[in-house]
């Protein structure tokens, strides 16, 4: 049985691990913002990324969670844009990582949900 696969017995691909790594990077960026900006909301955002990564390692992981992750990250991007683009340089870096993350998790959803068969 693979770690957290919707279909038991499948192994994680490099793309699965890359998505988990990008989520950790996004959590780290938000922890940094929380620390330097002394704003608790960034710690909450980082916490959701950490919970998502931990959830990845459970048997409850399903393809739909990839879509939830994409919506979550896209929503954060929209909120950043509407909020006046606070922390512009870090926000742009976060946006670049987020776009890669969204593309990757949508691809993984497509692959894991069986649409590619």
Automatic annotation (TrEMBL):
The chain crosses the membrane at residues 17-35, 42-60, 66-83, 90-110. The keyword Transmembrane helix applies. It comes from the Archaea. Keywords: Membrane, Plasmid, Transmembrane, Transmembrane helix. This is Uncharacterized protein. It comes from Halorussus limi. The lineage of its organism: Archaea, Methanobacteriati, Methanobacteriota, Stenosarchaea group, Halobacteria.
């Amino acid at each position: 049985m693979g770690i957290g696969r919707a279909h038991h017995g499948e192994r994680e691909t490099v793309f699965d691990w890359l998505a988990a790594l990008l989520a950790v990077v996004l959590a780290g960026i938000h922890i940094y913002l929380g620390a330097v900006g002394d704003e608790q909301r960034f710690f909450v955002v980082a916490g959701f990324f950490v919970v998502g990564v931990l959830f990845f390692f459970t048997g409850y992981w399903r393809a739909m969670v990839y879509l939830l992750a994409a919506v979550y990250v896209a929503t954060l991007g929209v909120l950043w844009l509407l909020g006046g683009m606070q922390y512009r340089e870090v926000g742009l870096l976060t946006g670049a990582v987020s776009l890669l993350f969204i593309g990757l998790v949508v691809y993984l959803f497509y692959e894991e949900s069986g649409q590619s068969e």
